[in-house]
Amino acid sequence: MRSRKSSWLGRTGSAVLLTAAGLAVTGTSAHAEDQAYVAVMAESSQLAQGVTQAHAKPFQFKIVNFVDSGTTAKNVTVTVDVGKLDRTRVGYLVPSGCTANAAGYTCRLGDMSDYSRDFGVPLYSLGEQGAAGTLSVKVSSTTPDPYLDDNSVEVPVTVAPAGYDLVTWAQDVYADVAVDGDDAGETNLTPVRLGHSVAFDWAIRNYGSLPAKGLKYGFSLPPGLTFAKQPMGCRVQQSDGYTLAACEQPNVTLQPGQSFTTDVNLKVGSNVPLGQLHGQSLYVVDYTTDEIDQGDADTDFQVFTRR
């Protein structure tokens, strides 16, 4: 099974900040009700040589609120420092809605409850292959945080040879999601009634510099969540209460900047927990040597429920 994750997607021109990738969110001890435990973890590490500014790759970081008490982290802000990037090899874009400064930029994510969001820093290729310095990301909130050691991270950036680079994206599941390949402008959405089915918004995108020929990917749904309309080209089976879909599209070719999706409907069981379901994931499998960065090719998403 894969880690729990939700999406935060922003835009800058034609560049897109995606949710993606798979680092496990481990359990933590309980905290005081007035404290939140926010952290940031790096997921991406490679950028394909030849990635253009128009199709800049959203270099992936995961922003997490590790908290057992259910405390909401208020006014979460992400600060991006590009001062140590090799600007002869890598360029960056400031996302719409973020504030540029001398060191990079800051973005306000708002409040975060007990789940994670993906945050993408759009990068593109300028020069030769090789080490391209480091990218620094820091997260903070106005809610007291007892652990500050993991509030920032530096990740080495490498410009790899030209290749394809698949990144998965999935919007959190609500009753009134617009199936349009992003969650821009979708706020105050309605949780799904128990026993009801809803459309699922997801995509696999190629942020590399060469075409990706043929796709193999999968879905994992925990007990209480199933397919009302299963994805095309998939074999679905049950395992220990989980619904697993193994999917293949051998005739699909994704050019740089292109995305793939099919219609999928999810059904929420009548006896699942109210509030939030965790453990749903979408992932790419069977990489080839042309896949530039496998670390950001799977994503988790949340399902929000109500009576």
Please give the share of residues in helix.
under 10%
- Mean pLDDT across every amino acid position: 87
Report the uncertain regions: 1-31
Number of strands: 24
Between the first and last Cα atoms, what is the distance in angstroms?
A: 27 Å
Gyration radius (Cα, Å) is: 19 Å
Tell me the overall shape.
Answer: globular
Order of strands in the sheet with most strands: 4-12-11-6-9-8
Structural class: mainly beta
Q: How many DSSP H or I helices? A: 0
Q: Major beta sheet, specifics? A: 6 strands, mixed
Order of secondary-structure elements: EEEEEEEEEEEEEEEEEEEEEEEE
Beta-strand share of residues:
over 45%
What does the model show?
By secondary structure, the protein is an all-beta fold. The chain contains no helices and 24 strands. The strands form six sheets. It has a six-stranded mixed β-sheet, with no helix packed on it. It has a six-stranded mixed β-sheet with strand order 14-24-23-17-20-19, with no helix packed on it. β1 (11-12) and β2 form a beta hairpin. The chain starts with 10 loop residues before the first strand and ends with a strand. The relative contact order is 0.22.
